[in-house]
Structure formats: C-alpha cells, structure tokens
Amino acid sequence: MSEAQRLHGHLIGQQGSRRSLNTPALVLDLEMLDRNIAEMASFAKAHNVKLRPHSKTHKSADIARRQMEAGALGVCCAKLGEAEALGEAGVQSLHITSPVVTPQAIERLIKLNGEVSDLMVVVDHPANVEALATAAAKAGKPLAVIVDIDPGIHRTGVATPEGVVELVQQVVKHKSLKYAGVQFYCGRHQHIVDFKERKASIEERTEYLKGILAMLEAAKLRPAIVTGSGTGTHFIDAKLGVFTELQVGSYVFMDHDYNVCDLRGLDKPTFEQALQIDARVVSANKAGMATVDAGLKAMATEKGPPVILKGAVEGSTTRFSGDEHLAVIAPEGKAAPALAEQVILTPPHCDPTVNLYESYHVVKGDTLVDIWPVTGRGRSR
Amino acid sequence: MSEAQRLHGHLIGQQGSRRSLNTPALVLDLEMLDRNIAEMASFAKAHNVKLRPHSKTHKSADIARRQMEAGALGVCCAKLGEAEALGEAGVQSLHITSPVVTPQAIERLIKLNGEVSDLMVVVDHPANVEALATAAAKAGKPLAVIVDIDPGIHRTGVATPEGVVELVQQVVKHKSLKYAGVQFYCGRHQHIVDFKERKASIEERTEYLKGILAMLEAAKLRPAIVTGSGTGTHFIDAKLGVFTELQVGSYVFMDHDYNVCDLRGLDKPTFEQALQIDARVVSANKAGMATVDAGLKAMATEKGPPVILKGAVEGSTTRFSGDEHLAVIAPEGKAAPALAEQVILTPPHCDPTVNLYESYHVVKGDTLVDIWPVTGRGRSR
Question: Where are any strands of DSSP class E within chain B?
C-alpha cells in the first residue's frame, strides 16, 4: 500500500478532507484536469489532427486512460522505463520519444514490444537501426520505428535532411522493422513567451521540415506519421497542418512557465493550473513570514520558487529555504499564515515535480476524491 | 522487488558489472563512503564531541547503521516521514530536526515514540509544546523535546534569547515531555567558501548561542544536549567546543558545492565524492557533443549542471538539455563520447538527488557489490 493510501485512504469522499492531508502533498484538481483534457481533445478534432499526448508530464496510467477515452491514439513516453511502467499498468499504445541504444535496454525494448499491442520508438543513428533490426528479427515481431529529426536543438535526431533520407532507407530495408514515420520536436521553441515571435520561429522550422518531407516523398518514403509539437506550439502547428499528430504534454496540468506564454494569441490562459502542492506552516516566529514544509525536495526548482494559490494574503511571495522548507513572505505590514495553517502552492515546473511524488491526491474542490499512483515515478532508464 | 533489484540483481558480484547498469543509475562508491564515515568518526572522537549524523542526506537505513557502527549516537531526520521510514527499517535512535505541528502529524509522532527506543523532536512554539504535551500524556510515554533556537536564518527556531528560556520553562512544566536540550543550526553559514570568513561568522554566532546557554544555566535549565553544526562548519564548531553533538550530513557523499569549501583550512578536500550518477550516450549526431540520458529528473538542479568524473575527454562540460537529457560538450577540436558509451557524473547537490532514486547501486571499483534501498525516498511529510 502506498504511503498516501495508508495515511489518507480513509479521507476519500469526506467533505473538506483536503485540509486533513499530511503535507507536502501533490494535489490534482480533477475538474480542472478534465477541462484541460476536453479542451485539447476538441481542439485537435476541430483541426483534424490526432493526439498522442506526452506522458512524461504525468507518468500516470489513470491520466493516460482519461486522455485516450477523450480520443487520444495512445501516449508518448520519454524513456523506456516509463513505457514499461505504463505498459504494466495496461496502457497498450506507447511511443518512446528518445532513442534506446544500449544492449541491455534494447533487450527490454524487444520484450515490451511483445507485451503491448502498439509500440513505437525513435531512431536517429545507423548503428542503432542495425542493433534494433537484429534484436527484432530474433524476437519475431516487427518493431515500429520513427525516424527522429533534429530541429536544430542538437539533443536527439538526425542532423541533416540527407541523413534523414538515408536513415529511412536503411530502416525500410529491414523486414524486422516497420517504418512508421518521422518525429520533429522543437523543444526550445515551446517556451517563447511572445505569440508572434513563437509563430515566426515555428513557421521557419516548419519550412525546414517540409523540405525534408518533400525529399522523402520524392524518394517514395513518405511517412505515415509526422509527430511532434507541444503545448507551447500546438495551436500554431495545428494551423500549419504538417503534423499528423501532436505530442502535447504540459496542457494537462500547466505550470507558470507555460502559463505566461500566450498559447493561442488570445492574451489569456487557455488551460488551468490543475497541479498543486499543499503545504503547512511548521514555524511562525518572525513577523510577516512563515516557514512551510515544502522545500527543494518537494518540487522542481529550476524555474524558480512556487506561486501561492491560497492560504496567504495577496501579494505574498515565496523563497526556497533549504531541502525541506520554503519561506512565505507577506507584503509589508501584513500577517503571514499562522502555525499549522494550510498554504496551497502551484509548482514552477510540473513534469519533474510529479516525479518526486508516489501519488496524486485527486480533489474536487476541498474534498479528496481519489488517490492515483504516479505510475512511472523515477522510471527514467 | 525494486526496479534496481529486478534489472540488476543478477549483476551483483560480477567483475566489471557497473558497465552493464541500465542508466541513469545512482551509484555509491563503497570504499569512499566508508573512508568518509571513518574520517568523521575519528575526528569527532579526537575532539570529544558526539555525532548524530543527518540522514536527510542519504535517507538510508544501511548508511545510518554504518554511521552508528562507527560510533554515532543515532541519526537526525528532517521530517517525521523520514523518521518513520528509518524506524520501520530498524533504526532506533532518531532526532527530528523540524517541528511537527499538525494534529495528524502529532498523532503519527506519538505512535512512532511508542515504537522506537529513542526519539527526540524539536519545538519552537508555545502552542506546539502544549499540543505535544497533551498528546504524549495520553499515550503514557514521555516525549523528548529539543528547543530549536533560530540562529538568525528565520527558518525554524525561537527568535529571541528570552523566548528560548520561556519555551524551556514551559517544556519542563510538563511531565509528559522530557527536556532533552537545544538545537542551533547555522544552515546559511555551512556553504561560505572561504575558511576564515566562515570561521569568523560562526564564532560570532557561537557568542550568541553562549549568551543563551548562560541564561539557561542561570535559570537552572542547562541543556544536556547542544546539537547543531554541519559538514561545512564541523571543524570550526568542534574546536569551539560548545556543541555536545554534531548533525553533520553531507560528509558521507560530498558534492561540488561543499567540495569547493575549504572545510578545515587545509586548502584541500577532506572528504571524497562517493555519490555518482552513471549515464549513457543516447544520441551522438553532432561533432564535439553528445546527449546522455540524465536530465532534470535525474538530479537536483539548483546548484547548476553536474561535473564529469569519467567517460569524456578532459575539459568536457555539461548543460541541461531538458527533463531527460544532458548535453556533454567536448573542448574545441576534441571528440565527444560515442553512442552507448558510459559517462559518470557527480551530482551538484547530493541530498535532493538521492531523493529522486529508489536504490543505491553500491560499487567497489567497477563492480556492483550491492543494491541498497533509499529507505526514506520521498518521505517528506
């Protein structure tokens, strides 16, 4: 039984039970989550593009199922371990968006391919194509591969248009591999705050992608799937109409970093901040400030300190105060929250924050309605 | 069975098996660890001060036991959940260094007090003293409390000398509480890089502490335990001779941030960087750079990117490349590591890095010799 189930299972369904949670607790607002899922699903339908949401954001089989019930084809996974975790939990359609290259990982990949109905994995290197083809041939079930194209980030992907065509040609030679399509993920562009600037840079990158697709077409290697995009550029990408499916991830929860981006040029947020952290004041001995029990170990920190959603006077700010604590600072002359009071925070970056927790505390309003495991927690290998 | 046991249990004892680990993997060099533990133990003995090492660094029952076998009184825990986890794993002497204030947490604290032989917890607020006294009285076993003194950080602790005396007076009135001593932790001073500057600031703070101890003495409330200090100031604190015991944590593993601090004024590191992260190259399509499989989810990030210990040419640097990836950049004109090659990193900040993993891969040289659970992983409430 999980720690959350043991400590809080008895609170499920009790009105107002969110206030009784031991803290820090990762809390998910179910109504916001469902509105976010519905919004993206209807957007995709209206724009005639498919959704394969990225599960690296939530690492949750429960949320993956909700996304698929709303029409998603399946989910993307950043790592093999994440795909194994979701596969074990019954999610059958999985696309691994990073290369799987070592012998020990390829062995696990082939095993997973035998266990789930629909698995795809990216490739970006000739040696890896050979290794996957050999392993898949031995196992007897073809492995679907997506050729990853570097959009200029130099993280993963084939670096040149000619290289893409060559790698696809190598893939199609192997009977044990199935050439499923291409991937083009402009990670760096997702977070450009200004809508017009983001649009211009994506249009430029899409021209580059179109050039590669034309070369593939000319070589009779047209990809069935063109996958990529993200929450930051989904609106622009859908309008451009090149992708057949979108790998949007963060939209389910949203974080500050994305929330300040004008996603659709509407000058207002499209999605709601469904992911929250409940904390409690554990020390309050200095006027105007309090210390709560959520520090560096309770959230990702590389995007700065969290924002206060509830539990402190307006204008209060936060400052990390070590591994286990956060300072809540009231504006000049105002009172900070008192000892043992609840403070609700929104995390600065959702994906690595979720990875710190074993469970979601699912709430409706102020009531705990369910506890969901973070299925792929820490499954980064 | 843990993921690490399932994937790597068969590698234990196989010569050179570290190279076969699925990555990213948290790796602990056993010989370095044991040398670090032995060094601190002999230092404390020579300076006639006791050790109660802080387990928030390692969250490991195996390491806590090793520290106690080397002479430590017990361990400190930052949070109640950490103490519960170590208690369940058989560690019987636990001091919780942050206040436990909510009704639900106090209930758990009192239960734990009945389960382990030796538990202490800090208090810094009159309302909390009353709540603990009432709960302990009901349970029938006295609860040992340590009065936490704010050294000027304003994180936890009583803010004034007079307040300390008053809180101790309140504690001793309650039969259900045992006044065990005081805590004074100068967290901010631990990381001052320059030895002389650190020494001067600690001497100034120690004068403040001495003033409070004199007031307690005058009120016939002399504390049996004066606990505090850390890896950064242990040498200075031990020489000053005010603490009866030291809460040193990071010395077991060490990280860059501490390693650049001249701990003993010797201008060379005292402890070894026993904690490492093994990664693998998953993409290598750009001259002079490679992408490895350890990103924001594989280590704490607030102290900057990790340092390369092994697996890349000298002078190579790293840059975070998203949630799951890290760029390894070779110096101008040099080659980056090739696809699937192993790169060994040392994490920028050990404590929150450990918290991301379910297991330690314990190695001697290049051989996996054991797998230890991160007993208190995520047990932050």
Answer: 25-29, 50-51, 75-77, 93-96, 118-123, 143-149, 177-184, 225-228, 245-246, 275-286, 289-292, 307-310, 317-320, 326-329, 342-346, 359-364, 367-373
Contact B296 A300 (CB under 8 A): yes
Long-range CB contacts for residues B259-264, cutoff 8 Å, separation at least 24: B260/B193, B261/B190, B261/B191, B261/B192, B261/B193, B261/B195, B261/B198, B261/B232, B262/B193, B262/B194, B262/B195, B263/B195, B263/B231, B263/B232, B263/B234, B263/B235, B264/B195, B264/B235
CB of A285 closer than 8 Å to CB of A33: no
- Report the pLDDT value the prediction gives residue B167, as an integer from 0 to 100: 98
Residues 6+ apart with CB under 8 A from A204: none
Binary contact (B56, A323; C-beta < 8 A): yes
Token readout for A67 is 């996304």
- Residues A171/A215, Cβ–Cβ less than 8 Å: no
pLDDT tens-digit series, residues B263-294: 998 888 899 999 999 999 999 999 999 999 99
Centroid of chain to Cα A16: 30
| Mean pLDDT score of chain B | 97
Distance of alpha carbon B293 from alpha carbon A79, whole angstroms = 9
Phi and psi at residue B39, to the nearest 5°: -65, -45
Which pLDDT belongs to residue A376?
A: 97
Q: Select from B79, B154, B281 the Cβ nearest to the Cβ of A324.
A: B79
Question: B285–A320: do the CB atoms touch at under 8 Å?
Answer: no
Substitution target in A285, A289, A302 with the highest count of B β-carbons within 10 Å is A285
Task: Residue count of chain B, please give it.
Answer: 381
Backbone φ and ψ of A313, nearest 5°: -65, 150
Q: Give the confidence band of B255 by pLDDT, cuts at 50, 70, 90.
A: confident
Mean pLDDT in residue range B3-32: 98
Q: Do B323 and A78 touch (CB under 8 A)?
A: yes
Average pLDDT, 10 consecutive residues per value, chain A (381 residues): 97 98 98 98 98 98 98 98 98 98 98 98 98 97 98 96 98 98 94 93 98 98 98 97 98 87 88 97 97 96 94 98 97 97 96 97 97 97 95
Contacts 24+ apart (CB under 8 A), A88-91: A89/A61, A89/A375, A90/A61, A90/A65, A91/A55, A91/A61, A91/A64, A91/A65, A91/A116
What chain A holds in terms of domains, given with CATH numbers, is 3-28+271-373 (2.40.37.20), 31-254 (3.20.20.10)
Q: What is the mean pLDDT of residues B14-27?
A: 98
Selecting from A56, A101, A124 the residue whose C-beta is nearest the C-beta of B285 gives: A124
Q: Write out the two tokens for A160.
A: 């040149």
